[in-house]
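Fig. S4 source data, part A: sequence.
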Amino acid sequence: MGTMLMKAGLEAGDSPEKWNVTHPEVIQEIHRGYIEAGSQIILTNSFGGNRFRLALHRLDDRADEFNKAAAANARTEADKASHLVVVAGSMGPTGQLLQPLGTVSFEDAQSAFAEQAASLAEGGVDMFWIETMSDLEEVRAAVQGIRSVSDLPISATMSFDTNGHTMMGVSPAKAVEVLGGLDLVSVGANCGTGPDKLQEAVKMMREVNPNVILAAKANAGIPKLVGNQDVYDGTPQVMAKYATDVREIGATLIGGCCGNTPEHIRAMAKVLRYNNGISVSKNMEE
């Protein structure tokens, strides 16, 4: 989503979530593009929709409005699709460190996630997708916050972007051990430092837990700064190969994160459909 929003005119530093209200037709068109490319799950444009992240734009008082609109925009396009499309409410981290390393308490984080989840549920999501997490305690806060307001299914993925671990030092093995005990519909990895490293994380998760449903959403290669924008070097063909490779490792829900356009998703969906796999659209970038 972020890649497509930048192409549509979103300025660096602006709130993507605000566009759910100011440019709903653009958001819906982007969702439509991913659906037509073959996505079976789309993520709402709400990654930074918790009040902590929105406060960076002085928009925390509009969290409810933005999240409801994000869900409604995705719901509109999913309901018009020619195939079944699941709408997942994207929920990213607060952007703050939890106590004792930071200033945000577990309870305050849980409350913020509960507020966001309630708005996404009212807007019409089918499930929640906690993503790009680095701290297991923050994942727990998100899960508990969601469950305090909704009984919809939850998936959670972490970003292993620091020497095979998350920024907070969590290994893929530890992640699947903990997340596997939270009664989630799927767990896995997203974002990070490209398809190869993400596949390594997924492989480790599969070795630790052979039964869990694994989700894999890699960036489209490695970003390079061109002008004032990140341009990813992974072509649709590169991502198609990643899709088949990560499926063989054991991932079931397969898609893309940063840098993936509808053309990338189309290439992945084509090879996965041939191999009886499942394609997933990642409709929000970090």
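Fig. S4 source data, part B ends here. The chain is about 45% helix and 15% strand.
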